[in-house]
User: What shape does this take?
Amino acid sequence: MVSLRSLGALTMISACLASLPAISAKPIIYEAEFEQLHQQHQAQWQQQDQQLDKLLAALEKKNGKRPNIIHVMWDDNSLGEVGIPEMNKVLGIDTPRINRMADEGISFTRMYTEPSCTPTRTAALTGRLAVRAAMTKVGFPPDGMGLHADEVTIAEVLSKAGYNTAFIGKAHQGDIESSYMNHQGFDYANFSMYNQFPFMTWQPQMIPGGGIQGFFPSQWDKHYTLDKLFRPQAYINQLEGRKGEKPKLFTGTSAKDYKALLKTNKQQLLDYIKINADSNKPFYMAYWPHLYDFMLAPNELTTNGNTPFSEGLKRLDRDIGDLLDLLTELGIAENTLVVAMADNGPMHELAPIGPRESIFRGGKGDYLEGGVRVPAFAWWPGTIKANQIVGDMVSIHDLFTTFAHLGQASNYIPRDRVIDGIDQTALLLQGDGHSRRDYLHIYTGNQLAASIKQQFKRVWIGDRPGLVGNGFTDLYKDPREEHMTMPPYLWAWAPFDHMKARHERQIQRYPHRKENRDRPYKGIEGISEETKALGLKVERDYK
Amino acid sequence: MVSLRSLGALTMISACLASLPAISAKPIIYEAEFEQLHQQHQAQWQQQDQQLDKLLAALEKKNGKRPNIIHVMWDDNSLGEVGIPEMNKVLGIDTPRINRMADEGISFTRMYTEPSCTPTRTAALTGRLAVRAAMTKVGFPPDGMGLHADEVTIAEVLSKAGYNTAFIGKAHQGDIESSYMNHQGFDYANFSMYNQFPFMTWQPQMIPGGGIQGFFPSQWDKHYTLDKLFRPQAYINQLEGRKGEKPKLFTGTSAKDYKALLKTNKQQLLDYIKINADSNKPFYMAYWPHLYDFMLAPNELTTNGNTPFSEGLKRLDRDIGDLLDLLTELGIAENTLVVAMADNGPMHELAPIGPRESIFRGGKGDYLEGGVRVPAFAWWPGTIKANQIVGDMVSIHDLFTTFAHLGQASNYIPRDRVIDGIDQTALLLQGDGHSRRDYLHIYTGNQLAASIKQQFKRVWIGDRPGLVGNGFTDLYKDPREEHMTMPPYLWAWAPFDHMKARHERQIQRYPHRKENRDRPYKGIEGISEETKALGLKVERDYK
Assistant: This one.
C-alpha cells in the first residue's frame, strides 16, 4: 500500500500552485453544445463559482487540506436496483447501506454513462467521450490494445495538484503497457486488464452451469482441430504496480484466486484509507470492485432474489457500508466526497440469474436509457445535504471536471483536446436544478446513436435515415422508449440537427484518435513464457 | 350529504352486537389455498388475533368509537408511479403528498388487484374474485348488466355493524338497478355506472385529439347508414342516491359537466368527513375519484411530464393531501385508517400521453404483474408505524375482510359463499412479514390465467397446454416476466397443479354466478325519454 505522508511540504507547494486562478490558463475546449449553455449562463455561473470556491476554501481551512475523493463504480446496474427500498423489495435484494447512503446525500435519477464497461471507465478517467480516444470496444483477452499513454486521466490531474492517488479493482482499459493504471497517473494500482469473465466463466466447474463453451482442451474436437493457438490457455488479468515501476502479476485466474481477490481488494481499500486518513495530502481513490461472482454454491445464495447477481449486490452493499463507516470512524467523512454508481445498464443477456431490465428498456451496449442510465449517489456529510433526489442530467464525464475543480486541479486539465465533462460542483453543493448539463451524445461503438436534450431524445441510427428519418421521444412520457415517433416533435427537428452538426464539426477540428495497438503483456513482471508467447502471437496478427 | 348523528344510541347497541366473538358464527368459507395456510398457522394466528383485538379495543376505548375507514382508489397506475420520489423524477410527475403518505405509513410493494376497473371494484366491494359474481367484464354504455342484488358489499357489512357509509366517484358496477351503489349498502352514493370514457372521449372537441371515432351523427356515413340505433346518443353516467331511495341523474356527460364533477366529488368527500367527524358512529368512505381528464388545453399542462395523465395524478395528489390534512385538522387522523391505491395497472394503449409501462411488463387487462400490481399505501397515525416498506403479498380482496375485522363486523360476512379476502389486520398493525397471504389466482375474464405462490408465478393459458405446458417464473429474478420457462421450476409443477385443482374443486362446490342482466336505467329519476328508450332496446337484445 502507498503512503506519501512524508511529502507533506511538497503537497503544500503544489496545492498553492493548483490554486492559481484558472483564468491564467488557456480555456478548456468543451464539447460544442456546452458552449451554447455557457454563453447563456456565463455571468450567473461565474458568480456562483465564486460562492462555491469560498465555500471550498472555508472547508479547506477547516480540514487543513482539500477533500478526499472516492469514486466507487460497479458493473451493470440499472437505475432503481439499489438505493430505492421499494425496488429492493420488488427485486428480492437488500441494499440497506446503499439506501442509507442515498438518504444521507444525493440520489441521482439521471446519471448517464457510456453503454459498456470499457468506454465508461475511459470516460471517467479522461472526462472525454470514449470514442475520442478510440476506447469504445470491450476488450477480451488477448486483446493488444488499450488506453493511449497521453490520454490525461483524473489521477494524473489530481496527482499534479498534489493528491495521493490509488486504483483498486476492475480497470478494463486494455492489456498493453501504456494502459496499465500505474502508468496512467495512479501512485498505486491493483487493476484488471479485462472484466471478470476470464476469472469467472473460464472455469471448468462453470461449464455445466452455462460457463464458457468449447474452451478447454478436453472439449476440443478430437478429429479436426488443427489450430492449437486459437484457444490459448495462458490468460492473465489482475496486476499490481506503483507509479514509475513495472507492474507484476497479482493473482491467477482460478476461481479460488478470484474469490480471494474480491476480499483482498476490499481490504486494500480500507487499509489505504486508514493509512492516508491523516496524511497531509488528500487522496483520490478509484475503487471499482469486481461485482460478479457466479461461482456460488446453492447454500451461498442468501438473498430473497437468490441469484448470483443479487449476492454480488449484497456484498457490494456491505463493502460500501464498511467504507462509509470507516470514514466516519476515522473522522474524515466530512472531508471526503464519495460518489458511488454503476458503470452501465444491466447485462440482461444474463437474466434471470444475472441483471435484468427493470424501469428502463435495454441494457449494457444499448443507447437506450436502460444501457446508460444508472444508479448513482453522492455522499459528503456536512457539505452535501441529506435526502436529495436530483432529477438533473449529469454524466460520467462530468466527474473528471468536477473532481478536478474540487481538488483545485482544473489547471491541469489538458487544453489541446475536447473535454466532454462539465464542472458539476454547483450541482453537488447546491442540489437539484443546478446542473450545467442538459444534453448528451450517446455512442454505440463508433456510431453516434442518439442525442438527448432536456427530456427529449432523438435516435440517429435506424433503417430510414433518408426519408422521414429517426425517432424522437419524451423520456418523461415514455421512459421505456417504446413510442419513438416524429410528428409531435417536429419543432425539435432542426434544433437536434444543429446540435449534431455542431458536434460533428468540432470532431472535424479535433478528430478521434486511432486505436492504440501494441503487443499485450509487455512490461509485466512474473508472467509465464506461455503468456509472453501469446502476446507475441497477437502482435503478429496486427503487423 | 348524509349525517346520522342522531343514531348514536342505536350505534352503541349494534357495536355491542358486532363485538360478539366470531366463534359463535359459522366459519367463513375461504378460498381453498388459504385453508392450507390456516391449518399451518392456526394456533399462532389465534394468539396474534387476541393481541390485535386488545390493541383495537384499547383504541376504541380511547377514541370512543371504532375506527373510520377511508378507501381511496383511482385508475390505472403501476407500482412506483406515485409514492417513490425517484420514480416521480423519472416520469416527470410530482406527487409529494402521496410520497409523504407513504413515508408516514406503509408502502406496499405487492398489492394485487384484478386486471381492470370493474372486477377490481367488485373485488373490493365483495371480498370475492370478481369471476364468482360474473363481474369480469368492463361495462360500456348501454350495458344492461351489473352487480347482483345479493352480493354482500363491505358497505352492507359495516352498515349492519353500525357504520355510516358513503360512496363517491367511479363505481363501474353496471347500469342496472340492483347495481346502484345506494342499493348496495351505502347510505349515500354519488357514483358512475361506467368509467370516465362517456364523459371524456365522447366529446366532439376530442375528435382531433384522438377521441371517439365515428360516433356523432355528423360523422355517419351519408349513403349507407340504415341503423340509427347502433350509435345512440342518450348515454348517462353519474347518479346520486340515498339508501332506500331512487337515485337521480347527478350530472350530464358534457365536458363541462365532467370537469365540474371532479371538483364536486372532492368537495363532497371533505364535507362528508367534516360532518361525520364527531358523529357517534364511525364511517366507511369509498372515495374512488375519476382520474382521467384528457380535455386539457396546452396551458393546463403544468407537470414536467406534461401529459393529461400526469396532470390527473397531480390533482389526485393534491386531493389526497387535502384529505389527510383535514383528518389531522379535525383531530380524527388517529382514529382513521386511509388506504390509497390504484385499481389496476396502466392502460398503456394510451401511452405516451396516458399511463405507460414502467417497472413491470403489461398493464390493464393483463395477468402480468403490470396488470395487477399497483401502488398502495396505508396511513393511520399512531397505529400504523411510519416508514414501512412492505414486501408481503396482499390483495384487493383482503380489504373487505380486514375492514370488517377493524369494524368488528366480521359476523356479517356471509357464510354461504366463498370469500377470497383474507384478514390482513396483523399486516397493517404489525408490519412486514405478517401477511396471511402467499398466493393469488389471477383471472382474465372468466379464464384462470395465472397463479402466484410466494415469488413464483405459473401461467396457465397459452398455446401448449397439453405438452410441456405453461410457463413458470420467479418474480424477484424476473419482475418483467420475460423469462417464462419450465426446467428450473420442475419442483413447482405438482404443487401448482394441486393448488389449481383445489381452487377448481371448490368452484364445483360453489359455482360462479351467471351474469346479472336487466334493463338498464330502471329506477332512476330525471332521465330522458331517449335514455329510457335506449334501456328498452337493450332489454330486447337479451330477451
